Amino acid sequence: MNAAPATTPMNAATSRAGGFMAERLRAKGWSIRDAAQYLGVSRQRLYTVFDDPGRARLWECAIAGMPVCTAQIKEELRASRKASAQAKPKHVAPPSEHPPEFEPGDKVIAIRSSGLADEDEEALIVSVRGTKKAGDLAILVQGPSGEDWLPEKDFHHYFSSTGLNTYRP
Prior knowledge:
Layout: H1 9-13, H2 19-27, H3 32-39, H4 43-51, H5 57-65, H6 71-87, E1 106-110, E2 122-129, E3 138-143, E4 146-151, H7 152-158, E5 159-165
Antiparallel strand pairs: 1-2, 1-5, 2-3, 3-4
């Protein structure tokens, strides 16, 4: 009869969402939501980074260098979220049945060097042409090193969404 593996501090830390990097944040009193806001990225971006074994080392350094999350920091983040929520328009048109995956103004982040941006550099979707249904969807990406039209498949190979759009509050 085989016994279940013993729970060690290492595998206990990685059993919660986000693995050991999220545990490092939690040990400093950070929630994923607060940490993402503090770092200026979406929660999904943090989870994507946490799950990527090939992530850039700078993410581990950023997490290690974050301060302990004090009550003052939490209150400042909460006040910022509240102000942002109040600034949103009250009457928003209902979302379409199938919202587009890409929109001009979407901020993206390079997950590998592309010639337009190095890994972990931000870029911007400037325009979109074609359709996914027709299979000719192309995205005009503007990065620190230039801009170019990328077929959807290539875009996904080099970039990931941050969930942020410069044209929306």
